[in-house]
Structure formats: C-alpha cells, structure tokens
Write a structure and sequence with these properties.
Length: 834
Amino acid sequence: MINKNIKSSAAIISATDLKKRIQHHLNSTLGDRVICEDAYKNTPQNKQAYWQATSLALNEIIIDKLQASKVQQAKSATKSINYLSLEYLMGRLLSNNLHNLNLYKSTEKALKSLGFDLADLCEEGADLALGNGGLGRLAACFLDSLATLDYNAMGYGIHYQHGLFKQSFKDGHQIEQPDMWREFGSPWEICRPEATQLIPVYGYVEQQAQTDGSLTSVWRAGKMLKGVPWDIPIVGYNSSTVNALRLWECRADSAFDWDTLNQGDYLQAHHDQVNAETVSKVLYPNDEHDAGNELRFIQQYFFCACSIKDIISRYQLQFGPLTQATSRNFADKVAIQLNDTHPTIAILELMRVLLDEYDFSWQNAWQLAGKVFSYTNHTLLPEALEKWSVSLFEHVLPRHLTILYRINEAFLNDEVNAMWPNNEAMRARLSIIEEGEQRKVRMAHLCVITSHKVNGVAQIHSDLVKKDLFPEFNQLWPEKLTNVTNGITPRRWLKSCNPLLSELLSKHVDDDWAKNLNSLSSLSPLADNASFQKKFMAIKHQNKVALTTEIKTLTGIDVSPEAIFDVQIKRLHEYKRQHLNLLHILALYRRLLADPDLPMQPRVFIFGAKAAPGYQLAKEIIYATNKIAEKINNDTRIQDKLKVVFLPNYRVSLAEKIIPAADVSEQISTAGKEASGTGNMKLALNGAVTIGTLDGANIEIAEEVGDDNIFIFGLTVDEVKALDIKGYNPYHFYETNNEIKACLDWLDTDYFTPGRAGELSSIKQSFLEGGDPYKVLADFESYSDAQQALGVAYQDKKRWAKMAILNTALMGKFNSDRSIEDYVKNIWFLTPSV
Ligand code: GPU
C-alpha cells in the first residue's frame, strides 16, 4: 500500500531515462571532470560530479514543471501569496525533490547501475542555510506546503553569498567559519537577469510645485542598487505545482554611479555609503536579537523594494496596468505576508511606489496596503522587537520617513483619538515613533496598524500577543489579532529523513499520510500491539545505531544505542535553557559518583546548537557543555551510564539524522518565552517523547497526545508572571537545595577545566548575581522529578513503545499543510490553481 495515489507527472520517467539524463550532464555540462577508471570512482571529486549531474538532470524535469505551473496559474488567474522573509533554511534539496516528485526509487536504480548509492550521493549537497533557526525553517516548510496544495506562491528573500556560519569546536570553544554554499554555483538556481530591479537609496526629498499649485515630494536618491533575482524551484509533493523562491543578489548599478560621479561634490557627501556588493554578502547570525546597524537596515529595504517592484510587474504582466481604478483587482489578486517585522519596509515601499510612481491618492494607497499586507509575530522577547532610529531612516530612506509620519499622524488623530480622546499617554504608547533621546521607529506598530490580520504562531503565544504585547491594538481592532499554530512538512521531516519508519507506516495506513498526516491516527489502536511495538522500536534502534556511527565520526565519542538518546537541538539561547539541561546532567553525575550502582537506564544527552557570535554567555554555555562532556565521557567510575555529546555544526541536514534516532525531546524553555517551537513537532512525529514546559506548541502537543504520553514540568506562564510580581530570588533555591548549591559551586572549581578554575563561573553568576532571568533554579526540582519519572517509564519497554507510537500517530495537527490552510481560510483567501 505504498505511495497511494501518487499522480506526479514526472512519475513516468524511468530509471533508464534518468540514467541517460545523468550521463548527458556528466559528459557535456560537466566537461571532463569525471574520471572513468573504476579505481577513481569514489574519489570526492567524482562523487561531487555525480551529485551535480543528478541534481542538474532532476532540475531540468523540475523546470519543465515550473513553466507548466506558471501557465496554469496564469490560466486560472488565481490570487498569489507573496511570502517576504529575510530567512529561508532550505537544507539540502536533492532527496526532498526526488521524494516530492516520486522519483527517488527510479533515480536510486539509475545510479546503482552507474555504481553509486543515492543516499550516499545526497550527502554531497551543501545545505542551503540562508537562515538562523525556527523562523527560517518555518518559511521553508511553508513553501513546501504551498506547492503541495497547488497554491500560487512566491517566496522572496536575499541571495546571501554566505549563509549561517559553519561551527566547529576548538578545545571546547565555538569557532565560526564562513559558509560557502555556492562557491562554484548551485545546480538548483536559475538566474533571471530579465527581472532585475533598480533600487534607489540615500539622498534627499524635494518639494516640487505642481501646475495646480500643490506640492509633491520628490525623492532625489543618492545611490542606486541593482537587484538580480535567482530562482530556486519549490517542488510540491504529489502535486502539479512547482513554485519559486526568488532570492535577490545586490550589485552596484555602475551606470548610476558614473552619473553621480559627474556631480563631484555630491559624491563626496556620500563617501560613507555602503558598498553595493556587501548588501547581500552575509546573513546576520543573530537569532531573536535586533542587530540594529545600517547594513542590516539596507538589506531589509533592498529585498523589500526589489520584491514589491517584482510583485507589481508580475501583476501587470498578467492583469494589465495598475491604476487607482484597477486597485481593487490588485487586492483580489495579491497577498503579501510579512515574516516577522524584518520586511516591514515593504509597507512603506508599496505606499511610496503607489503615491510617487502610480499617482494614487493617499486614501487609495492606504486602503490597498491594508488589504494586501498581513504580519506574523514570532516572539515576545523585547530584545527581538525591532526598532530603527529615526536618524537612520532619514539618512537612508528620507522619502519613506515622510510617508511613515503621515501614517502615524492619521492613526493617532483619527483612530487613537476616537477611542481614547485627548489621551497623551495612550498616544505615546501607540505611536509608531518612540520618543526619547534617540527617536525610534517601532516596526511592529507599523505592521499591526497597516495589516488586516496579525497572527501569533501557537495558541498560547497568540493569546499573549493580545493580552501582553498589543492589548490596546486588540481593543481597537478585536478581529485583527489571531492565531495560526505552526507546522512542519511531513515530507522532509518523516518521509525523506526516516525511510524505515515511513515504510512501516505506509504498510499500516491506507491513506497517503505524507499528505494527510491525520491519517496516522489510525495507528493508535496498534500502540498496544506487541508485534507492531516490536517493529516500531526495532526501527528506532536501527536509527540509533546509525546515529551512533555518526557521533563517532563527528566527535570520536562511543555511545551505546541501548542508552536513552535524549536530544536538545535548537539555537543556543538562555530562554531555551540548555543550561537547565546541563545543570541536571551535573546533578546526575554527582548522584552517580555518590552511588555508582544507582539503578538507572544509561543516558546519552545529545546537544546541537549554534550561538550567535556576539552572544557571550551562549558561547560560554557551549564551552561548559563541552568541558563537562569531556570529563563525564572519560570517567570510568560511572560505567558508561552517562554520556554527553555536543554535535558540531547543527543544521537542517544534521537534524535529519538526529531526529529519527531520538527517544527524548527536550523542550524546556521558560513558560511564555518560546513562541511556538517546531523542533518539538519534528521529534514527536518521529516517535520521541517530549519532556517540556507548558510553553508554545508544547501545550498543543500535550493536548494531542494526552498527559500520559508527555512529561510536563515547571512553572506555568501565570506562575512565572506571579513570581515576577512577587519578586524572584534565585538565592533561595541555591541556599535551600543542596544539589543545586553543590552543582553551581562545582562550576567555580577546576574540576572540569584542570588548572583553570573559574572558567565556567559565568553560568553560576548568571543564576545568582545575574538574577536568573529565565528561572532555571525555580524549575530545577520539577525538571529533575520529571526526568526521574521519564527514566522509570523508559525501563518499561511496552509502556515506552506505546508512548512513542502514540506520539507519531497523533501529530496530524502539526502538518504545515494545516497551517497553510488556516492562513488561506482566515488571512490570504486563496484558491488552488489546479
Ligand atoms: N524565531 Br523573532 C526565530 O527562529 N527567529 C527569530 O528571529 C524570531 C523567532 C522562532 C521562535 O523562537 C520559535 O518559537 C518559532 O517556532 C519560530 O520562530 C517559528 O515561528
């Protein structure tokens, strides 16, 4: 019963045909790079060439479908969704594209006849790591779902020359190296010079008298940037649609610069302008932190301006001129989603273009913007809420600032004043401009004021957005704030990354679960079935054996697949509390030293995390984990009952290896801090049991699997708030809990860093002098109890198997197809093109 109803048009391509196509690229496109003698077959150079030839052959098929999709989308005249995101974490594309086209098996066969293993070749591809973490990966999952559901969608972003840095460890410290994902080009991208855009920046605004006596603002730009688009095809699963991810590369517009050069002193006045090529050079490696410098600001503006122009020209190509008279049609045909506040400037750019280039009245332009835009909020953390200084705006985008002022004025005078007459405090709170020594633009305010819908990414997060972040906006517009719970694509996060489990599921589920993930719930009755349990857990074991080998290769550490594989994989951040996990590891280690015969199931704690290069404490947590791991892994007294592994360079392709092998999923953020989380969904889908707080989507996961199949611990959101009001004193826990005290004092010694006492003290300090902002000490005991209960549960093999199976069976809600359908029904109002 495998691959029911697969109707891919590409499915008719045979292994023989694929082999020919691959050979064609080996012989012609790649020239003489392949060495044919058998002895050289498996050299890295050859494998790269075969990977490339396979990818090129596949991309040819994909491009045919891309053209056909464009024709179909034009014919059906469907509304499009334009997803604006500064980040896309696509990972590798070969395996995923093959699965989505139902060509995996035939390509495997074709390559086998050429002497290569497809799974092995897939490892040759570089990850497209054009994002930091959850927000970027969500964008990638959404693109997959949009194409799968046959929606007309375009992703817009930046064609970074360097994606997220590569991480390695040197004596336990994180080292960052540049990511070179396309040093010699990528077989998946197509350059589209015909859609190049010119983007003005800097300069000044001039008031120009019109013939009727009125004044209009004219922007005299100081520099011109050129945006060159690269398209990456996005292949739907078992669908007719291939959409595109359009990434803008920034180049200098030399013609313009020659022109300004002739103006002599004018150029001199702008000698400090950023260099065009640097704009798309590198992804800012900060996760949930507002970096706040000019280059980042220009990145945001650059890609928004290119995208807005492109959206308008695509519209005009299909539907004719955009004028005030046709503006209603534009709103019926175009939706734009802002992935957090990073693309907020798109709002001002659309306004500017409509006003200055299409002669729209203010009223018409503003109405149109409201219909077209919607905004997703991904965090409540204050340090991540973007604010740009008014002076930077004035310097880089003087015309946009005048538009922003007018939006703000109308909002304060009309809407705020109507609701709260003559209320200065309310005006100050809701104004897009934050007054102060340095005046700032609150980007989230602009998004909320303009958009017709604003959503959070999990129910509790959306509730907090309404209650705590934007209560006044919610009062003004009760219908505007809403929820769309995040999701993940089951294609990458089960079908492609866990082939053994996928095959088992397909044998027992009638429907195509990779499309209709809810159908997995039909497995629930099998959760108690001894034979099914055996098969399910045998696969988990096999995946653990594979990860064991990977761990050995990457770190040299020996671990046993009999141990519990306890996984925490995500960006390193205090609010995610990797240091709570670490503190518990120290406590376990102490307990084992005190009683080496302590009955416990051996455990391997597996970490994967990158720290932002400028985030000192995060880097110290990585260092401490590596040092503690070194000591524990080499301590023979504890008889391998405890191992700690920090896998370097965590990224999508590594996640695909860890997740199928995980027994336990650590989702232990301070309640109220993790907007949703999506790793929690991926791990549970692959049969890992969650230990987690009542935060983000954990709450919804618990609702789906039931309290018996998840380990919940810790303070709730309300308890965290109450503690803050009462006054939280971390010293209380240090002084009254001997285990906490002993573990923290341990960090001051040289036990883990021989001869260098104090190297790990900053973590202890953050808990005590630092005030423990994320309540690690307050949650420690409850976490430790939950871990204890989890260890006991694991030893009951039948109970554990049942829990694992039910986690896989009951993740249907978290299919990103469901998230997309929620957006479609409540925010975008699209219809499929097919
Ligand atoms: N998130 Br804001 C990021 O990964 N980066 C960001 O800059 C911001 C949010 C994450 C949230 O932390 C996570 O909880 C959520 O699941 C994810 O976005 C997708 O919504």
